[in-house]
Design a protein that fits this description.
By secondary structure, the chain is mainly α. Helices cover about 45% and strands about 5% of the residues. It is extended and about 75 Å long.
Length: about 350
Amino acid sequence: MLAKMVAATGARSGMWRTTLVVSDVITAILLADYFNRVFQTQHEQPIAVPLLGRTTQAQHIEKLTQADLLRPGAPISRWFDTRCPLQGMIGNNELREAPLSPGEEPCERLYEKETDIREADKRFVCPFFRVCPSHQLSRDIPQARIWITTPGAMASSRLSVMIEERFVLLGEVIYQESDLVIFDEVETIQQWFDRVFATSQTLIQRTGGALKNLTVLAQDYLSNSNALSNEGRRWVFSAIRAYEIGLYLCDMVRNSSLIQQWIAEIYFTPYRLFSDLALRLLGINPNAPNLILTSQQEQERDQILALFHEFHDDYMMPPIQDSHASPRHRECGASAQWKWR
């Protein structure tokens, strides 16, 4: 209830935008509908919208239909209209397969010639976007003051290219455009994020491990290549070196009771390692109870940490260039410009 009050206050006053992160899609849709019914915005610009993945549109419609929520005239039907103007202009004899399913429309991948189908730089967006019933949700997003989404949509779904030409995930948009983000049932959401962003990978084990497998591939590539670019050579040598460092770290863990204690207590992170090392270099036990540093000790610790951070930020491999090619944004002769809020 408190989250609803905070979100509603910000929306009505226009002072902030709130994003509510809930555990499932149906909850997100019904919560957005709740705000719009309370503030009577059925026939106006919605005050709240759900941020959902476009490619899973058919699944959302199926769930809403099974729950008997998507009735004719229902306010939420505004966001789940399946009419496609472009498909309506195609004759039945021209459809090679069945009619397009919701979410599978080629809104961002139109071509002038069939021979250009694999040329990303020759893609066009649909000229009917501004009036397309199936994209009403995308047009409602920029002005809505309350966003409701799920952890799955935050991590894997993106904005339509019609309102943002860059490849931008919903999580990034929420970070940039929301003033307040509230997580509901945070323990469930945390588990979901852990599965996506904190997956477990065995690097070294007796039968191999990811680093050893990568080293074998790198060595094979090195032996079969007559010439390597500077970037390629650095990557191959870094992969081999990573395995050597991994073996060395395993030996350190086996032979050091202190490191074993560190790992057993809490998460072992670069920041914690550097912070503890900085204090130990100053002759301070970081595990001392009620530890309080003097201003001089804090200054000396920060100086050491600055050096450690430079070491941590030194790339072992060249940065990866962005490989996402944006379709050419041509809509009725001009690109659409959207004003957020």
